[in-house]
Write a structure and sequence with these properties.
- By secondary structure, this protein is an alpha+beta fold.
- The chain has 2 domains: 241 residues, BirA Bifunctional Protein, domain 2, CATH 3.30.930; 94 residues, Anticodon-binding domain (Rossmann fold), CATH 3.40.50.
- The chain contains 16 helices and 16 strands.
- Adenosine monophosphate binds next to strand 6, strand 10, strand 11 and helix 12.
Length: 421
Amino acid sequence: MERITSIRGFRDILPGESEKWQFVEEKAREIFGAYGVREIRIPILEKTDLFRRGIGETTDVVEKEMYTFVDRGEESLTLRPEATASVIRAYIEHNFFETDPVTKLFTIGPMFRRERPQKGRYRQFHQINVEMLGYEDPRIDGELISMLMLFLSELGIEDLDLEINSLGCADCRPVFREEVVRFLDHREESLCPDCRRRLQTNPLRVFDCKVETCGEAVREAPVILDSICAGCRDHFEKVKNLLDTLAVPFRVNPRMVRGLDYYKRTAFEVIGHSLGSQNAVAGGGRYDGLVQELGGPDIPGIGFAIGFERLVSMLPGDETRFSSKPSLYVATLGTAAETFAFRLLHNLRKTGLQAETDYSGKSLKAQMKRAGRSGAPYALIVGENELAEGAVVLRDMGAGAQEKVAISELHAKLKEIFHVR
Ligand code: AMP
């Protein structure tokens, strides 16, 4: 039969790697919890209009990367390409702002973008998203960014650069946009076809373009920091001071624009130098106005998204840091021993001990070989003769030493070794 394989750009997360994912998720819950950020779980499928309106019609994501289809009820639906729009939709739909205008939420899950797959870029990828809604005060920017950096450092990830910028607001960004258009008008011939189109629709996107000639064209372009208004400048200065206060190192990158339209004022990215060409491990920014844009009240917000795959690829430590090995391997000899071991395993696992055995019916020697391969530090050998005496043999696999243990003493003995319940 012909094999059916997975879809290009979609990957399996196998045991060995999945332990790393669990480790990261636990750390996220722990650190975010300390900041009062609570988990929200949202659907993967949303109405297409949510992303069109939320992300922006002229962004790459909406223009060419979404998995959009018409379902059997003739409705246009889209697999979410990012989480912020969905979180805000839920925030509005459930009237969060009525109980408390300040809401801090996180969500972890898959996103879908039909980009060209390569190392660090997939069509189904995962993000850890945090959104903090309700404050305009720059202290929330400082809190969110420093929490992100704390999280990354608690995972042991080093060699990171935090880059920040201000993208201005509804008052000053249009002025900058005009300046950019004026600047690029003379250089249209060096822009790629996409960017020529962007010049009409969304000129700031040119800053993001990966085509070399476009990169050269914007090298001398005006930067937004030179034209932001007094309010935005003040906000940006305060954010920088707050990061300094917490000794969070950062670099101002005046050319960073970010790929999604909704960002206002503070924008930031975390660059991982070991990542290769797709080197952004996290990105985010302030999106005052988005809640209103999606039909809610005028509530400001700021958030970030961490790329889970890229994060996991940067985790230090070899397999042993994350792998889960059985603590105890149970080998048996004879039918009576098998029955006894079956019950024993059930009771051991009830105490939380990771215990493994072999049902293949192979020789004791073969079972012990598997016990060795399993990496379990101890093996329990249940033999017919010992069992008749009311005992089993406990073998220390590392030391190669073994001792007879009375079944009545077994629980106490294992408790001593493994600190189980
Ligand atoms: P964005 O939502 O575009 O701001 O992306 C936030 C983070 O998600 C990026 O910094 C990446 O780490 C990650 N990311 C974005 N797109 C992909 C992708 N196609 N494959 C893997 N990770 C991605």
